[in-house]
Write a structure and sequence with these properties.
The chain is 47% helix and 11% strand. With 436 residues, it is an alpha/beta fold. The chain folds into two domains: 10-373, TIM Barrel; 376-435, no CATH class. The strands form four sheets. It has an eight-stranded parallel beta barrel, surrounded by five helices. Strands 1-2 form a two-stranded parallel ribbon. Bound molecules: D-xylose and nickel (II) ion (NI) (2 copies). One nickel (II) ion is lined by residues 230, 266, 294, 336.
């Protein structure tokens, strides 16, 4: 046991003061016809939870994630598997996400890295069978190694491009072996620093080609779910190509990848792009492209990807509002989040997941209440009522001509004002439903 002092975390309700209990996440509670557990397929991010130990630009590790072994060894990699499964089991988290190099230390030679991946995935598979926990999605880390300094699919070097392809191929194999339904691309360094040295069109075509090859190979190997793009506007590159949901959707359509790909929307990436989390969820959902979620949050005072555990219940409420309206996710809620550097103990890792799972449970409860209350839906319905009959209906049916509309306007002389947006009233409805 790696967390001997931590019991299995149970639901004790909102009155409980036990820090190692859920206050709101009650897996069997039914909301709008499904249990909380079904609504909220939570996933552990291998990289943050088992690898990241607090190093930042100004200081080294604060947390001990050696799990009793020397870091960088296969012994350590195996200990992480056992620790990770104990962690997930104690919390009732049923899924995990990983990069290839989160689960093994990368060797100098890719053939040795692949051998290590075979060895570790045997162990993970064994633990999956024992616990019922599964892989949500896998991915290849195409940004950490110096060879990717100019990108992977977007690299100027064809040899580096081949290494990216080799890593993607192996990461797909491991994902399939671990029962993962989905495969993800996050374009960490797929972007540019300056146009003075960059052919954007050339790079985007190459990225699309790599994705097409991945789909072709992945479908043959058994990726049954979706391929994902995870948009992010910047960091590490100054300008990333998958800037936001709208940009990524345009890219996927342009290159004919939109049937196989959906989006993995990360809260902190949406806000870095100057949007709300809800905005990028809506854009994905209305295009039928909402696949999965990286459930974290940023800091409005800081301009980078702080990857905090979600606690803002307004945000989780609006997220779950979009998800419920969409009919649920075929992916899951991956906590791509890390403890703050001074929260360095193993208990802190559990507190963080309890916080996040409770925040999403509250979001779910609230979103269902907002939908059941119906005032927001009714307001929106009413707001566009002028398109239900007469000239509005004609516009919607696509039969109207510009001359006809101009003629209509001419007869009116001047339109009445379009009706109040009632934002403050609607915000007070939200507060009333949440706290009333
Ligand atoms: C980084 C990304 C990354 C992806 C997986 O900002 O969020 O962690 O989720 O490569
Ligand atoms: Ni992410
Ligand atoms: Ni991120």
């Amino acid at each position: 046991m790696y967390f001997p002092d931590i019991p299995v975390i149970k639901y004790e309700g909102p009155k409980s003061e036990n820090p190692l209990a859920f206050k709101y996440y009650d897996p069997d509670r039914v909301i709008m016809g499904k249990t909380m557990k079904e609504h909220l397929p939570f996933a552990m991010a291998w990289w943050h939870n088992l690898c990241a130990a607090g190093t930042d630009m100004f200081g080294r590790d604060t947390a001990d994630k050696s799990f009793g072994c020397e870091k960088g060894t296969m012994e350590h990699a195996h200990a992480k598997v056992d620790a990770g499964f104990e962690f997930m089991q104690k919390l009732g988290v049923g899924l995990f996400c990983f990069h290839d190099v989160d689960i093994v230390p990368e060797a100098d030679d890719i053939n040795e890295t692949n051998r290590r991946l075979d060895e570790i995935s045997d162990h993970i598979l064994e633990k999956e069978k024992e616990t019922g926990i599964k892989c949500l999605w896998g991915t290849a880390n195409l940004f950490g190694n110096p060879r990717y300094m100019n990108g992977a699919g977007s690299s100027n070097s064809a040899d580096v491009y081949c290494f990216a392809a080799a890593q993607v191929k192996k990461a797909i194999d491991v994902t399939v072996k671990l029962g993962g339904r989905h495969y993800l691309f996050w374009g960490g360094r797929e972007g540019y620093e300056t146009l003075l040295n960059t052919d954007v069109k050339f790079e985007q075509e190459n990225i699309a080609a790599l994705m097409r090859m991945a789909v072709e190979y992945g479908r043959r190997q058994g990726i049954k779910g979706d391929f994902y793009i995870e948009p992010k506007p910047k960091e590490p590159t100054k300008h990333q190509y998958d800037f936001d949901a709208a940009t990524a959707i345009g890219f996927l359509r342009q290159y004919g990848l939109d049937k196989d790909f959906k989006l993995n929307i990360e809260a902190n990436h949406a806000t870095l792009a100057g949007h709300t989390f809800q905005h990028d969820l809506r854009i994905s959902a209305m295009n039928g492209m909402l696949g999965s979620i990286d459930a974290n949050q940023g800091d409005y005072l800081l301009g980078w990807d702080t990857d905090e555990f979600p606690y803002d219940v307004y945000e989780t409420t609006m997220c779950m509002y979009e998800v419920l309206k969409y009919g649920g996710l075929t992916g899951g809620f991956n906590f791509d989040a890390k403890n703050r550097r001074p929260s360095y103990t193993p208990e802190d890792q559990f507190y963080a997941y309890i916080l996040a799972m409770d925040a999403y449970a509250l979001g779910l409860i609230n979103a269902a209440k907002l939908i059941e209350d119906g005032r927001i839906d009714r307001f929106i319905e009413e707001r566009y009522a002028s398109y239900k009959t007469g000239i509005g209906a004609k516009i919607r049916s696509g039969e109207a001509t510009l001359e006809e509309l101009a003629d209509y306007a001419g007869k009116l002389g001047a339109p009445a004002l379009p009706g109040s947006g009632r934002q403050e009233y609607l915000e007070s409805v939200v507060n009333q439903v949440l706290f009333g």
